[in-house]
Amino acid sequence: MAVRNRMRRKETAFFYAFISPWLIGFILLSIGPIIASFFISFTSWNIFQPPTWVGLKNYTTLFQTPLFYTSLDNTLIYALVTTPLGILIGLAVAVLLNQKIVFRNFFRVAFILPSTLPVVAVTMLWSWLLAPAGLFNEVLQLFGIKGPAWFVDPAWMKPGLILFTLWTAGGGFVLFLAGLQGVPDYLYEAAELDGADAFTKFRHITMPMLSPIVLFNLVTGIIGSMQTFTQVYILGSSNSLLMMVVYLFQNAFQNFSMGFASAIAWVLFVIIMLFSLLVFRWSSMWVYYEGEIKR
After folding, report:
1. Cystine design at 240: which of 22, 154, 171, 253 (Cβ 3.0–4.6 Å)?
2. How many structural domains is the chain composed of?
3. CA distances (Å), 77 to each of 80, 130, 280, in order?
């Protein structure tokens, strides 16, 4: 028994020794800054001078600032539009490319490729495609449609951003395709014996089996879209595209208001957490897990 305990302690020591580089990095580079930012949000700090305690002033000032509500509106609109559309496009493409069609492997690679490209390169490409005299408007001109100034006219900036964001919906497509290939064939065969048509099989077999993947894409889509930064930062500083992370960056690294920027970060964290909890609470009504018994 004593020998077994010594071996167990030795294995435990080796385990913590092997994970210690990651654990130290996680504490110093993730947990540490998170805790520090919480305390900084209650201070006034411009990096060059010691921080001074101001209490809730940063938060009260934030909720009285019009630009905060502008960035919040833009972020919510962007998240609530791109997330469901991205899921629908990814699901539709996955269903299509799960069929036996010509050049299926080529199309699978073609749809996943945009999501693997650097965000900066994709943004520069689409800023050229959606320029007032860009390729997209030239194609519209062939049909007698005068294309808008996508990233010049404030009224069309968000639609332009949403349009090129949906081009990278291939990331969700891969998960849906993997889920479709994991649906047992005997479920479809049993449904066919009962006279089920294609729509009925999709609604009552395919979607319940894919519901955990829909939940995953929904949560990660909301989190990712509400943290959008690179695309907006490259496209410009117009208030019509001002997102919360960009507003945070401007206050932190342009205005050097670290306390105010930390307050923005924590407000954004609370908003994302509330949306995530709401989705998880709602998911109990429609997400199906194999082997689960509903009560």
Report:
1. 154
2. 2
3. 5, 20, 20
Q: Is the dihedral of CA 280, 217, 159, 125 positive or negative?
A: positive
Domain that holds residue 226: 57-283
User: Per-residue pLDDT for the chain (295 aa), expressed as one digit of tens each?
Assistant: 677 778 888 888 888 889 999 989 988 888 999 999 999 999 999 888 899 999 999 999 999 999 999 999 999 999 999 999 999 999 998 998 888 888 888 888 888 888 888 888 888 888 888 888 888 888 888 888 888 888 888 888 888 888 888 887 777 888 999 899 888 888 888 988 888 888 899 998 999 999 999 999 999 999 999 999 988 888 876 788 899 999 999 999 999 999 999 999 999 999 999 999 999 999 988 898 876 655 5
Find tokens 């005299």 and name the residue: 133
With tokens 């048509």, the residue in question is: 197
Separation of alpha carbons 202 and 198, rounded Å: 6
| Dist. CA 187–CA 101, nearest whole Å | 23
